[in-house]
Write a structure and sequence with these properties.
heterodimer; A: 460 residues; alpha+beta; MetI-like fold; B: 284 residues; mainly alpha; 12 helices; 0% strand; flat
Chain lengths: 460, 284
């Protein structure tokens, strides 16, 4: 059996073979490229020493850090020398000492027990003169005793219900100077030679609206807001409205006022930068388009200017501007404006050159001047491109402004960098990260909406 | 003449109303822009550490300093440029690595995120939302946290950039896949191909040129990103840039800036060349 292909007879056998051959080569190419990529991975793993991640990366440390972003903790400290004084501090900060015991810490006067601390899981730590007794809620047959031995070193012991000594579980670590107990992420007991420190974690952000020293710290937000409408003043010299808002914005731990202001700064940087870029870029684009500007010299030099503005990266502009304008908004605004003037200028001049010249000719035929020809012949054609490109840049510049902020232009980026570098305010890092993601998402949605709205109008 | 007939007067009236409306919109729009610019510059000037006018006056001081430093270094400046090439290579290969890994993972995941191909709609939503989160989470935040956890090296930058790349590319790829020609898919389905075979032989070949061109574009972005992350602590050329800036070695700063601009420009030209070739191939 055979069919005619072009001028000669080709058997199915031959076609089959040629297809087979082609398929074989394609398979070979695929395999070789996958192999090359895998080889590259191996090379990179060696080059970047990716194996070292497993050594540096401790999931325990990461989970504790993550815990810090969504939970808060209270420190309970007792000195072995003077066991009558037990201090309870929020986040272990000496300024945030509770004036009286919170409800989960109960003082017991009689007998040897001094106080009982109840963890969230129901486990209990009983403070005594010379030792801490830890009772886990899950395994009621086990009891742990920590204290300071006769030799002055801390010790740990585990017992079952009948008082027989048992082996220590792996979450208790005993060293020469310290016993570290971490039965779960939310509970931690450390026994030192001189003191014992218990950390009690709880889920959530505490003092989020009103800080530790605020007169409103016991109010929830709705309660505080309803205070605005009540007659009695909490502070005699301030109206309740002023009080509530100043307390929220001056919150010492969360710094809502500062954080929101720096979000605004970042937003301003992005908006002003993009706006300046589009206001500068459009006229320059006209000057750089060959169907508008007859002078080759101007076109050529503008084109090279665009290339330079675009080619020197936003970060490098930022570094240059930081020297002249100092750390602040102008640095970010101009870094964005310079880079995007280049990009928008190039894009728009190409769009202008590609514009249909029939419309311009139509306007010309009515005897309109050159400026009117451009106004009614070209601008309506390029406007949708211009608007959508500007909005795209606004969107990506919001992200860019956060990064520029960390490099010296201020705004939320700088705040975030500061919070991470201090290393113990990870709840603030979490808060700011959430705000940044919100900002970026809102800008995304808004630019998509504006694009639809404005270009829709253009089309009508 | 009937009631509904359009007279020239009514048309003109209508046109006038429309023109007035348009004029009001334009004035409002321009007013809003002027307001934003003026008030924004006012706020910026108020909270800026240095003043605007002084900044404009001093604008050329720093570049002039840099160039005079480099000029003093003489021919040795080219030696300085060469000495930063290994660091540049580190940053560049970090960017390449994260682009390749990110693009591969996005390519594997994105058939799950397209409505016309995914086995079920729940996966579509899950994978898409994952892409969205990865995309909108700035890589800087992630890199800073990882740097804190893992110490100073380029690995945190790689991880952060890779995650961002997965999000960004996943969205682009799944949009590309949504727009493919479904005929090859139907053809393969009709001969009883499995889902995996359909993806391999009907979907990927169609989007491959687009994938390559997006990846090149992404590589350019990732080079910038890994430089910035180097600047905040993850090695590479960004780390040298911080050091030189702090020590005020103008010649080194200029050398690094030169290398960065050269790399990015070269990549820009290369990727636009390849993209034109690839897109030419698609349309041909």
């Amino acid at each position: 059996m055979s069919i005619a292909v072009y001028d000669r007879e080709v058997s199915f056998q031959e076609i089959y073979q040629s297809v087979e051959k082609k398929a074989y080569y394609q398979k070979l190419i695929t395999l070789v490229s996958i192999g090359a990529i895998l080889l590259y991975f191996v090379f990179s793993i060696i080059q970047f020493d990716l194996g070292s991640i497993s050594r540096k990366w401790s999931p325990e440390r990461a989970s504790r850090l993550f815990l810090d972003t969504y939970a808060h903790k209270d420190h309970v400290v007792m000195n072995w020398k003077d066991t009558s004084k037990i201090s309870v501090n929020f986040e272990g900060d000496y300024r945030y000492q509770y004036p009286s015991f919170p409800e989960w810490l109960e003082r017991i006067g009689d007998g040897k027990d001094i106080a009982i601390l109840t963890f969230n899981s129901g486990s209990k730590a009983i403070f005594r003169d010379d030792k801490i007794i830890f009772e886990q809620s899950k395994s009621e047959d086990r009891k742990f005793i920590f204290g300071i031995g006769d030799n002055g070193k801390p010790y740990a012991e585990a017992y079952d219900n009948d008082g027989n000594e048992k082996d220590l579980p792996n979450w208790i670590r005993v060293t020469e100077s310290k016993v570290e107990v971490r039965p779960s992420l939310y509970e931690r007991i450390q026994i030192y030679k001189r003191k014992v420190e218990v950390h009690r974690y709880e889920f959530g952000w505490k003092y989020f609206w009103f800080d530790f020293f605020s007169p409103l710290k016991d109010y929830s937000l709705p309660e505080a807001l309803s205070l605005i409408f009540s007659n009695e003043r909490i502070e005699p010299d301030k109206t309740n409205f002023e009080l509530v808002f100043s307390e929220i914005s001056d919150n010492e731990q969360w710094m809502h006022g500062t954080v929101l202001f720096s979000i605004l700064e970042t937003l301003l940087m992005a908006v002003l930068g993009t706006l300046l870029a589009s206001l500068l870029g459009l006229p320059l684009a006209f000057l750089a388009a060959y169907n508008i500007t007859p002078f080759k010299f101007i076109r050529f030099s503008l084109r090279r200017l665009f290339d330079m503005l675009r080619g020197i990266d936003m970060i490098i502009w930022c570094l240059i501007f930081v020297r002249s304008f100092g750390p602040g908004l102008f640095t970010g605004i101009f870094a964005i404006a310079f880079t995007d003037t280049g990009t928008l200028g190039k894009l728009m001049s190409e769009a202008i050159e590609n514009a249909d010249n029939k419309q311009q000719e139509g306007v010309k035929s009515t005897g309109a001047s050159t400026i009117l020809q451009h106004r009614f012949g070209i601008i309506p054609q390029i406007m949708p491109v211009f608007i959508s490109q500007s909005l795209y840049y606004l969107e990506s510049n919001t992200r860019g402004a956060v990064i520029l902020g960390a490099m010296g232009a201020g705004g939320i980026g700088l705040q975030l960098l500061g919070a991470i570098r201090t290393g113990n305010d990870f709840e603030n890092v979490g808060y700011m990260a959430v705000l940044i993601v919100l900002l970026v998402t809102v800008m995304d949605q808004m630019s998509a909406f504006l694009r639809r709205f404005l270009i829709g109008i253009e089309k009508n | 003449m009937s009631q509904n007939a359009i007279t020239i007067e009514s048309l003109e009236e209508n046109l006038k109303v429309l023109a007035r409306q348009r004029a009001i919109y334009s004035v409002l729009f321009i007013g809003a822009i002027i307001f934003i610019v003026v008030s924004g510059v006012g706020v910026a000037n108020q909270y800026n550490a240095g003043s605007f006018t002084r900044g404009v006056e001093n604008f050329f001081d720093y570049p002039a300093d840099l160039f005079s430093d480099a000029f003093e270094a003489g021919w040795g400046w080219f030696g300085i440029v060469l000495s930063f090439i290994p660091a540049l290579f580190e940053t560049f290969s970090a960017a390449v690595f994260s682009t390749v890994v990110g693009a591969s993972i996005a390519l594997i995941l994105c058939p799950l995120a397209t409505i016309n191909l995914s086995p079920n709609q729940v996966t579509v939503q899950i994978v898409r939302r994952t892409f969205d989160i990865l995309r909108s989470f700035p890589e800087l935040v992630f890199a800073l946290i990882l740097l804190y956890l893992m110490g100073k090296s380029i690995v945190p930058a790689i991880i952060a950039v890779t995650l961002h790349t997965i999000g960004a590319m996943g969205k682009l790829f799944s949009e590309a896949i949504e727009n493919i020609d479904m005929k090859p898919v139907d053809g393969l389905k009709s001969v009883g191909a499995s889902w995996y075979q359909i993806i391999c032989f009907a979907v990927y070949p169609q989007v491959l040129p687009l994938v390559l061109s997006y990846s090149l574009l992404r590589l350019e972005i990732n080079v910038r990103a890994s430089t910035i992350l180097g600047f905040v602590g993850a090695g590479g050329i960004g780390a040298y840039l911080t050091a030189s800036l702090q020590w005020r070695y103008g010649d080194e700063v200029l050398a690094i800036m030169f290398l960065l601009v050269a790399t990015i420009t070269a990549l820009d030209y290369f990727s636009s060349y390849v993209r034109h070739k690839l897109i030419g191939k698609i349309s041909a």
